[in-house]
Specification:
globular; mainly alpha; about 500 residues; about 0% strand; 22 helices
C-alpha cells in the first residue's frame, strides 16, 4: 500500500493534470512523514537486478586493474561513478514510473530516421559489451571450480549454449528472479568482504584515495574510464525504466507514481551501496596483493589464497559464477527490452539470449581455442582480460547515447508533468555527468592513439592523430546535438504517434 495524505483528492483529467489538493499539498509532499518500511519492502527487487551489473566479471577485472596500476588512488573514481550511476538510475526509474514508458519505447516515439537507428545501434553495442565479461567470467568460474579440469574454451561453449535457464525464468516471474539475483548478490558480497579483512590493506591510504581526487597519468585516466564504463552501464538504463513498471500501484495518479519513484530511489540507494562496498573491496585487495603480477582472469583467483588455496579458489569461483550468471539474466532482460522498444517486436527471453550469444560467444571461443594449450595459458589470460577491459571502455563510449535521451525526456514537462519534471539542480547535475563522460572518453581516445603511434613514422602519426581528432569531434558533436536539440513531441503529436505505433509495429 502506498500512503497518501489524509483527505487528499486529485482531479485527474489527464496523467499530467496539476490540480491542487484539497488539504493544501500534494501526496508526495508528505512522503517522509508517511513513509512505511512495509511499503518499502514491496519495492525491493529492481535495484538489485540493476546493481548486479555493478559487480559483474567486467567490474572484477577493471577493479583489479585499477588497484594494480594505481593502488588506492582511484577509489574516489569508484565512489563518484557509483553516485553518478545512482543519480542516472533514479532518473531512469522516474521515467518508467511517472511516464509509464521505458527508455527504448520513448526513444522510438521521439526520434526518427538516422537518430533512432543510431540510438538503437548504441544500445545494442552496450548490451553486447556488457555480455562479453559474463561469458568470459562464467567460463573461468567453471574452469576454477573444477580445479582446471574443464578448459576455458569448454566453459565458453557451455555458457554460450546455456539457454535452458530462460524458460525457467519466464515461468518463475520477475519477482522470483529478483529474489534469486538478490541472493546471488549476498553470496558475492560475503565472498569479497571476507577476503578484504583477511588481506589487511592499508586503510589510511585507502581513506585518502577515497576523498582525494587524483589522476596520476594517462594510464590512470584509461583505468578511470574503464571504471566508469564498468559501473554506469548503458543497458541498465533501459532495464530499470522497464522493470519498475512491474510493481502494482494502488491507483494511477501522478502523486502515487512520484511516491513510488521515491521508494524506488531508497531501494536503489541501498542496492548500489552494497555494490560500492564490493568494488572498493576488490580495488583494495588488488592494491595489497597484486604488487608485481598483472591482474588477469587467471591470476585473479589468487586473491583468496590467504584463506586456503583450494577453498579460496572455490570461494572466488562461486562469487564469479554468481556474478556472471545473474548479470547474464539482467543483460538478456535488457536486450529483450531494447529490441521491443525500438522495433515494437517482442522476442522470448531464450531467443533474445541466443541472438546475443551468437555475437558475443564466438570471439571469446576463438581466443580460448587458439590459446588452449598449457604453454599458452598466460597469453590466454592476458587476451581474455584485455577483451573484458576494453569491452568496459566501449560501454563508456556508448553511455552518452543512453544518458542524453533519458535526461531530455525527464526534462520534458509534457511527458513528466510539472511535479515530476527535473528541477534546476537535477538538470545541472545531469548535464555535468554528461560532460564528464564525454571528456573522459575523448581523453581515452587521444591517450590510446598516443600509445599506438609511439615510435611510428611522421606520416602514420599525422594520419592517426587526424582520424582520432575527427572522430572525437563527430562523437562529441552528435552527443551535444542530442543534448540541446528541441524536443519535437508536443502532447497531441505524441498521442497521435503512440496510436500509430500501437496500430503498426512497422510504423517507423
Amino acid at each position: 500500500h502506498i500512503p497518501t495524505s489524509s483527505g487528499a483528492r486529485e482531479n485527474m483529467a489527464s496523467a499530467e493534470d496539476e490540480s491542487l489538493i484539497a488539504d493544501g499539498g500534494y501526496p508526495e509532499d508528505h512522503f517522509w512523514k508517511n513513509m512505511s518500511c512495509r511499503t518499502l519492502a514491496g519495492f525491493i527487487g529492481p535495484g538489485f537486478l540493476v546493481c548486479i551489473a555493478y559487480i559483474d566479471p567486467g567490474n572484477v577485472i577493471t577493479d583489479l586493474q585499477a588497484g594494480h596500476d594505481d593502488r588506492y588512488s582511484l577509489l574516489w573514481v569508484m565512489l563518484v561513478s557509483t553516485l553518478g550511476g545512482l543519480f542516472i538510475q533514479c532518473l531512469s526509474a522516474k521515467l518508467g514510473l511517472v511516464a509509464r514508458r521505458h527508455l527504448a519505447e520513448q526513444c522510438r516515439v521521439e526520434y526518427q530516421g538516422w537518430v533512432k537507428w543510431l540510438l538503437w545501434v548504441a544500445a545494442e553495442i552496450a548490451v553486447i559489451g556488457a555480455d562479453v565479461p559474463e561469458v568470459v567470467g562464467s567460463a573461468y568460474a567453471i574452469y576454477f571450480i573444477t580445479f582446471r579440469h574443464i578448459p576455458v574454451w569448454a566453459g565458453v561453449l557451455f555458457v554460450g549454449l546455456n539457454v535452458l535457464e530462460f524458460p525457467l525464468l519466464q515461468w518463475l516471474g520477475t519477482g522470483r528472479v529478483e529474489a534469486v539475483v538478490s541472493a546471488m548478490v549476498s553470496v558475492i558480497s560475503a565472498c569479497y568482504i571476507v577476503e578484504l579483512f583477511i588481506a589487511k590493506p592499508d586503510w589510511g591510504a585507502a581513506g585518502i584515495g577515497l576523498i582525494l581526487p587524483l589522476i596520476k597519468n594517462g594510464q590512470a585516466m584509461l583505468d578511470a574510464t574503464g571504471l566508469i564504463g564498468a559501473v554506469v552501464m548503458p543497458h541498465n538504463l533501459f532495464l530499470h525504466s522497464c522493470i519498475v513498471q512491474e510493481k502494482e500501484l494502488d491507483d494511477d495518479t501522478v502523486g502515487t507514481r512520484i511516491i513510488a519513484a521515491k521508494y524506488n530511489y531508497i531501494e536503489s540507494t541501498f542496492a548500489l551501496f552494497v555494490s560500492l562496498l564490493i568494488n572498493i573491496a576488490l580495488i583494495m585487495i588488488a592494491a595489497k596483493k597484486f604488487q608485481s603480477a598483472d591482474p588477469t582472469m587467471g591470476t585473479a583467483v589468487t586473491i583468496f589464497d590467504s584463506i586456503n588455496k583450494q577453498a579460496g579458489q572455490v570461494l572466488f569461483s562461486i562469487g564469479l559464477f554468481c556474478a556472471g550468471q545473474s548479470a547474464t539474466i539482467t543483460g538478456t532482460f535488457a536486450h529483450q527490452i531494447v529490441i521491443k522498444g525500438f522495433t515494437g517486436k517482442e522476442l522470448p527471453l531464450y531467443q533474445a539470449n541466443i541472438l546475443l550469444r551468437l555475437i558475443t560467444a564466438p570471439p571469446c571461443l576463438i581466443v580460448a581455442i587458439v590459446f588452449k594449450s598449457v604453454s599458452d595459458a598466460h597469453k590466454l589470460d592476458v587476451y581474455m582480460s584485455a577483451l573484458i577491459f576494453w569491452s568496459q571502455v566501449v560501454l563508456s563510449f556508448a553511455l552518452p547515447f543512453a544518458m542524453v535521451p533519458l535526461i531530455r525526456f525527464t526534462n520534458n514537462p509534457v511527458l513528466m508533468g510539472r511535479r515530476a519534471v527535473n528541477g534546476p539542480i537535477t538538470k545541472v547535475t545531469a548535464y555535468s555527468c554528461t560532460f564528464i563522460v564525454l571528456a573522459a572518453n575523448v581523453f581515452t581516445t587521444v591517450f590510446s592513439v598516443i600509445q599506438q603511434v609511439e615510435g611510428s613514422s611522421l606520416v602514420v602519426q599525422i594520419i592517426m592523430y587526424g582520424a582520432s581528432g575527427i572522430l572525437s569531434i563527430m562523437y562529441c558533436a552528435v552527443a551535444l546535438w542530442l543534448l540541446f536539440r528541441p524536443m519535437h513531441m508536443g502532447e497531441e503529436e505524441e498521442e497521435d504517434t503512440m496510436k500509430k505505433i500501437n496500430n503498426s509495429s512497422d510504423y517507423w
